[in-house]
Amino acid sequence: MTDYMMPFTRMVHLSDGTIPDAPLIQTRRLSDLSGCFADSDAENALSAANPIIYEVYEATQNPEVVGHLRYSTTVIRPGKVGDEYHMTRGHYHALGDRCELYYGLMGEGYLLLQTPEGEINAQRLTPGAMAYTPPYWGHRSVNTGKDNLVLLAVYPADAGYDYRTIADQGFAALVVERDGKPEIVPNPRFVKAGLQPE
Amino acid sequence: MTDYMMPFTRMVHLSDGTIPDAPLIQTRRLSDLSGCFADSDAENALSAANPIIYEVYEATQNPEVVGHLRYSTTVIRPGKVGDEYHMTRGHYHALGDRCELYYGLMGEGYLLLQTPEGEINAQRLTPGAMAYTPPYWGHRSVNTGKDNLVLLAVYPADAGYDYRTIADQGFAALVVERDGKPEIVPNPRFVKAGLQPE
Question: Is the pLDDT of residue B155 over 80?
Answer without folding.
Answer: yes
